[in-house]
């Protein structure tokens, strides 16, 4: 792999794991007002849930002890959702074509995005052979998926897990996401 990315652990959901071509069930309101589940297609998603929470969820689902000699992890450690952030090809984000109604980035925004100084976006540079093209995460578009759904996906389709972001690049991504997600903004500012 590379210094920025590492090979994923087979069959395991890892923090900052990069998955490609993922369909995630999402609940939407129909025109009649009833809820319906639709599949949302994402070219890439990055797992943002903390590694310690993912590990406790894994142990709780399997009934395993956290450390040798300790009782199994309590079932209340099971997660109800795993936080994901969609990622898109850099060129599509800069052109504004990655979302419906998007707009082309002006020169200032472009420079900020490409240097990871724009608070809403995070650039994952290409590093062949792991990452063929640069991707951009849009923190405004976070979503989630049930752990069992994602676990079956990574077990049944290991080719969908491209890589895992290594420290300190993982740490910087998470810090930037938390800064964006935890910001205090007045309506119209964000």
Structure summarized in a few sentences:
By secondary structure, the chain is of the alpha+beta class.
Please describe the structure with a list of short key phrases separated by commas or semicolons.
single chain, 190 residues, alpha+beta, 8-stranded antiparallel beta sheet, 5 helices, globular
Description of the structure:
The structure is a single chain. This protein is 26% helix and 27% strand. The protein is an alpha+beta fold and 190 residues long. The protein has one domain. Strands 1, 2, 3, 4, 5, 6, 7 and 8 form an eight-stranded antiparallel sheet that branches. Strand 2 and strand 3 form a beta hairpin. The longest helix has 13 residues. The radius of gyration is 18 Å and the shape is globular. The model has no long low-confidence stretch (mean pLDDT 92).
Domain count, please report it.
Answer: 1
Helix run count: 5
SSE ordering: EEEHEHHEEEHEH
Q: Percent of residues in beta strands? A: 25-35%
Uncertain regions: pLDDT < 50 for 5+ in a row? none
Mean pLDDT: 92
Please describe the biggest sheet, giving its number of strands, its sense, and whether it closes into a barrel: 8 strands, antiparallel
Write down the overall geometry.
globular
Q: Multimeric state of these chains?
A: single chain
Helix content: 25-40%
């Amino acid at each position: 792999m590379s210094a920025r990315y590492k090979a994923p652990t087979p069959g395991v959901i890892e923090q900052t794991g990069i998955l490609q071509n993922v369909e995630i069930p999402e609940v939407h309101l129909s025109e009649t007002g009833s809820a319906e589940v639709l599949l949302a297609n994402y070219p890439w998603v990055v797992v943002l849930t903390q590694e310690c929470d993912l590990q406790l969820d894994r142990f709780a689902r399997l009934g395993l002890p956290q450390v040798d000699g300790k009782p199994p992890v309590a079932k209340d450690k099971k997660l109800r959702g795993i936080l994901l952030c969609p990622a898109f090809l850099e060129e599509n984000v800069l052109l504004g074509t990655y979302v419906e109604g998007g707009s082309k980035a002006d020169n200032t925004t472009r420079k900020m995005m490409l240097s990871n100084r724009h608070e809403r976006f995070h650039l994952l540079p290409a590093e062949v052979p792991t990452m063929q093209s640069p991707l951009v995460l849009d923190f405004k578009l976070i979503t989630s998926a049930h752990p069992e759904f994602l676990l079956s996906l990574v077990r049944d389709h290991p080719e969908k897990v491209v890589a895992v972001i290594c420290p300190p690049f993982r740490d910087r991504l998470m810090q930037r996401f938390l800064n964006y997600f935890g910001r205090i903004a007045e309506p119209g500012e964000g």
